[in-house]
Structure formats: C-alpha cells, structure tokens
Write a structure and sequence with these properties.
The protein is α+β, with helices and mostly antiparallel strands. Helices cover 34% and strands 21% of the residues.
C-alpha cells in the first residue's frame, strides 16, 4: 500500500497515531439537572458530524476526568446495530462533555495527525465496510473490538498537507451539504404542488377554461361552486357501504388471502400489491370482505395526521380483503367517477369534511360510517369529472418525473462525499508542498516511542 501513496505519505495503525484510547460509560439516569452533557449513539450523525438535537445530562459523579472530551478528539461508535458500528465524528465543542459506553474516544497525537483528518479517514473506512467483518454480532447489536479499531491502518500525509486537505474538504463538503439541503426542500414543494392541484381541481378552477368551451345550462345556485356543480352529502353517491373491514388475530397471518392494511396506502392508491400480508379466512369471510376494482377504502381509525386517508382499488391482481381499521364503499358511477372521488377525498377540503365529526382519544382518532356519509362533496357533471381526472393525472405525472429526477440527483450527491474523500486520501485533492516534513520521517520518530497499549488506556 505504501508504494501507491504520494511522495512523503505513509501508513500507520490507529494505535500509532493516537495518544489515548478511552471507552465511555453507561448511565441509567438521564436529564439530570446540572449534570454533565453525555454524548450517545444518536449524537453521531451519518455524515461524520455531531448531532446535538437531543443531548442527555448525567450525574457528575459518574463522569470521571478520563471521560472528558477535548476539542480535537475523535468519537467512534463502537457498539450499535451492525450497519452503524464505525460511524464517527470530530469533537470541537466548548464546555464539558462526556460520552456513553457505546462510544470510544480517540485522542490524536497532535504532532502526527489532525483529528479532522483522522475522522474522515475512519469515516471512509466505515462507509466502505472495512469494519464489517471485524465486528462481533449479537441479536440487534454489534461491537467493534478495541484491537480491531487500534489495528486499523490509516494513511498519514505530512501534517501541513493534512491541514490543507481538511480545509479543502470543508469547503467542498460545505457545498455538498448546501446541495443536500436544497434537494431536501423539493419533496415539500412537490407535496404542496399536488395539494394545490387537488384544490384547484375540486373547486372548479382547474377546468374553468374547459367549461367556457363546453357550456351547460345546469345551475345549482351555490355561489362558491361553478354553476354546473353541486354540493351533496357523500352518502348520496354511495351504492354499497360504507362497510367496516375484517379483524383477525396475528396468529391467522402468514399465508392465505391478500389483505390491505392501513400501512399499504398514503397517496390515494395501494402502494405495493406484492408486499401485502396474507391471512387465513373462511369462504364466507373472503366473500363478505372482498375488494373489487373501483372500490374506495377510507381509514377510520388512526393518528389524527393519517385519519381519513383514502385509496382507490385500481387493478386487483388476485382476491383481496381489507382490515378492520378501514371501511370500504362503492359509488353510484352514474353520478360520481371513482377516479374523481378519490381526488376530492385526498384534497384538504375533502379531508376536512371526512374528519369534521371525528372522535379523539390519546394519540388516536376515529370516524364512523355516518361521518363518511355526512361529508359534503363537490360534484361536477360526469364529463367535467373526466376532464379533471385527465388534467390532474397529467400534472401528477410531471410531479412523478420530478421525483424520479430528484431521486437520481440525491443518489449522485450522496456519492460526492465518499468520492471527495477517496481523492483526498489518494493525494489528489490538493497540491503537495516539497518543503513539508515527510510523514514517514515524522513517524520514524514517533515509532521510537511506545504506542497506545492495547490492553488499557494511557
């Protein structure tokens, strides 16, 4: 490996470039008034930075001086679920902080390695899976042994070059962060766009030009709606139902008939038929709770945020039923198209109507069949319903394309950080300075002194 490194670079084990290796401590007491800030697994982000949204405080008597953190230290998550063991962060905070037993503190030799440079070196090893086969695994938890971490080999450029690399990385990674933040705003904008489309569609604004080209003599007298529209109770449009779904204990699940549960839909349609659970039923139950194409499902019990969410059964692949937390209804299609009805029920006005008589308990709300039938519904003529569906599907198709492009862009941006780090640790990020003291010369002096002993902390 050394032969492939830039001139003046070398490699060394973690034990050779640190002066102290210190595991943290556990505490059953949390949020102690006047206690010591105690960094835990959740305080190390996936991006190599500290996350301070939730910092616990623990009794001062538990935080020994050896557990104190100093700016320049590197924290490594050495116990966690398998995929998260090895994530790490650079510590640069003022004030007193300690750390939990799931973390290990590395204190770099300041005249050998910059802590920020060491952090990114170890972070890249974590992302590349270097630690995966070195961990010990238990149920839902893995641990990176001390020896495996201390023996991990890192690259060591001249100290001055390390600092130039870090400065360049911070500039470039700042731009990556800014790109990620901008991309993170797009789903919110797309959600608002979809709701704006639904609001325009279900109030008549979306098809105002269509009505001018297709005039009608119909008038309902409702000043809030176009003249050809009507405001009716939803129950007037239902031919069959609403009917509550089927309850079966967990012991009946595993094989049998497909069943739609409340986690199967969020945006007006069944999310993934192939992922639906199966349940063992009698023939009578299969017939009583069978779904058909164009059925509408309404979530009747859930948290307030998701209460009333609806889905349209568009294309059944095989016989399917639905669970008790939702109700099923079938429309009079001579008056209301299922494809239009699901748009109205997804819109904010539609949700408000479905929820207006909801009953609320702790963390759970519910609506009943009468609540659904009493919901007011904006009903255009059938021909305009068809045009609304066509236009909304076209606009939603554009939003879907943007989401696909967003997913690709996010994937590309996520690759930037590992790519930049790979360039950094190959010596291709900043120019070299021939006046820098070579790292191998520096390390030859360091190796003349004892390294961190593997059995204890210095």
């Amino acid at each position: 490996m050394s032969d492939e490194l830039p001139k003046g670079w070398t490699t060394a084990s973690v034990s050779e470039v640190i002066e102290n290796f210190q595991p943290g401590f556990a505490s059953g007491e949390k949020n102690v008034e006047g206690g010591v800030s105690h960094l835990r697994m959740n305080n190390i982000g996936l991006d190599g930075k500290l996350v301070l949204d939730l910092v616990r405080t623990v009794p001062e008597k538990l935080a020994k001086p050896r557990h104190d953190l100093s700016p320049g230290d590197v924290l490594v998550c050495t116990t966690n679920s398998g995929a998260l063991v090895g994530k790490c962060a650079y510590f640069d905070l003022p004030g007193r902080y300690a750390f939990s037993n799931h973390l290990t503190r590395l204190r770099p030799k300041r005249d050998v390695v910059d802590g920020r440079f060491l952090r990114w070196n170890l972070w890249l090893h974590w992302k590349r899976g270097v630690f995966d086969d070195k961990c010990k695994h238990w149920v839902n938890q893995s641990t990176l042994p001390k020896d495996a971490l201390l023996e991990d080999e890192v690259v060591v450029p001249p100290l001055a070059e390390q600092r130039r690399i870090v400065a360049k990385l911070e500039t470039l990674l700042g731009k990556v962060d800014a790109s990620q933040q901008r991309l993170a705003k797009i789903p919110v904008l797309l959600k608002r766009f979809r709701q704006s489309v639904l609001a325009a569609a279900c109030s008549g604004r979306l098809t105002a030009d269509w009505r001018e080209e297709n005039p009608t003599d119909e008038t309902d007298g409702d000043t809030d709606l176009p003249g050809s529209w009507k405001s009716v109770e939803f129950g007037e449009l239902i031919n069959d139902g609403p009917q509550n779904g089927l309850y079966k204990p967990a012991s009946f699940y595993g094989d049998g008939t497909m069943i739609v549960r409340i986690d199967a839909f969020y945006d007006g349609a069944i999310a993934a038929w192939d992922e639906l659970k199966r349940v063992r039923l009698t023939e009578k139950e299969r017939n009583q709770f069978a779904l058909r194409n164009d059925d509408i499902l309404v979530n009747r019990v859930n948290s307030p945020k998701f209460l009333g969410k609806c889905a349209l059964v568009r294309k059944l692949k095989e016989p399917c039923v639905y669970e008790s937390n939702m109700m099923r209804l079938r429309l009079d299609t001579s008056r209301a198209l299922p494809n239009y009805a699901i748009l109205y029920l997804q819109s904010l006005p539609g949700l408000v109507e479905l929820r207006k008589n909801a009953k609320h308990a702790v963390n759970q709300s519910s609506i009943n069949q009468e609540d659904v039938k009493a919901a007011m519904f904006n009903l255009p003529p059938l021909s305009e319903q068809q045009e609304i569906v066509r236009r909304v599907e076209g606009l939603f198709g554009l939003a879907d394309q943007l989401e696909e492009r967003l997913a690709k862009a996010r994937g590309q941006v996520e690759k930037l950080t590992p790519s930049l780090l790979a360039r950094a640790f190959a010596g291709r990020l900043v120019p070299q300075d021939p006046t820098d003291e070579p790292a191998d010369t520096l390390l030859s002096r360091i190796r003349a002194k004892p390294a961190v002993q593997k059995g204890r902390s210095k």
